Amino acid sequence: MLDCGIAGGKTLDDPGDLTQVYNIVEIFHSVQGEGARAGIPHVFIRFGNCNLRCEWCDTDFLTFEEMNCMDILSEIFKFDCKNIIFTGGEPMINDLWPIQRLLKNRGYHISIETNGTILIPDGLIDWICVSPKDQIYSKVKIKQRQGDELKCVYLGQDLAMYDELILGFTHLYLQPCYFDDKSVEWNGQNFALTESVVKENSSWRLSLQTHKWMGID
Ligand code: SF4
């Protein structure tokens, strides 16, 4: 029996929401390692599948299991943490309203990390981080053009390509391209190049993936 997670035990849950099934790669508790909310503990819900295939992607989003929302909530309740991040894969290929309603009924703050190719409905998400991929897929259209953070992987692209997009975001991050299977020197050169670009474009900040340096998820 699911502990409903609300003091007093009453919920306004729709029974259909509790049985909604999602493809889940993993659910884990960690500290956000990058962006404006870096350092804040979160429960990460990594959804399976993605509508893109980026060369540098380090997520095995094709290994997942089907979990209904009761099972997902049971996992989340193991952690004393009210901050959730939907990540992936691409979370927005799912109908996120059922899990969103269940979490909001329990007072959770919900962030999302998305590639921006699918428009996020108003009111679904509290904190939106868009990481566009149109620097490698020129035919990809970024539909989510507003949010809290814009996080771009730097591959030598002209930052002028974001002149219009940046108007919809509060925080702008440029992230060095990082490959686990490349040498420290190779990744270091990418880091130095990105750092030099940020120094010349002061509206952007360097995105430091501190969780990777610390060897945590
Ligand atoms: S959009 Fe993100 S999850 Fe999808 S393939 Fe690219 S890096 Fe991986």
By DSSP (H or I, 4+ residues per run), the number of helices equals 5
The main β sheet shows up as: 9 strands, mixed
| Spatial strand sequence of the major β-sheet | 3-1-2-4-5-6-7-8-9
Small-molecule binders here are:
iron/sulfur cluster
Q: Please give the CATH architecture.
A: Alpha-Beta Barrel
- State the low-pLDDT regions, or none: none
Query: How many domain modules?
Result: 1
Task: Write up this protein.
- This protein has one domain (15-214): Aldolase class I (TIM Barrel, Alpha-Beta Barrel), CATH 3.20.20.
- The mean pLDDT is 91.
- The radius of gyration is 18 Å and the shape is globular.
- The protein has 217 residues and is an alpha/beta fold.
- 29% of the residues are buried.
- It has helices at 15-18, 69-76, 97-105, 184-200, 210-214; strands spanning 21-31, 41-47, 65-68, 83-87, 109-114, 127-130, 147-154, 169-176, 205-206.
- The structure holds iron/sulfur cluster (SF4).
- Residues 50, 52-54, 57, 59, 61, 88-90, 115, 133 line the site of iron/sulfur cluster.
Fold topology:
Elements: H1 15-18, E1 21-31, E2 41-47, E3 65-68, H2 69-76, E4 83-87, H3 97-105, E5 109-114, E6 127-130, E7 147-154, E8 169-176, H4 184-200, E9 205-206, H5 210-214
Parallel strand pairs: 2-4, 4-5, 5-6, 6-7, 7-8, 8-9
Antiparallel strand pairs: 1-2, 1-3
The structure holds iron/sulfur cluster.
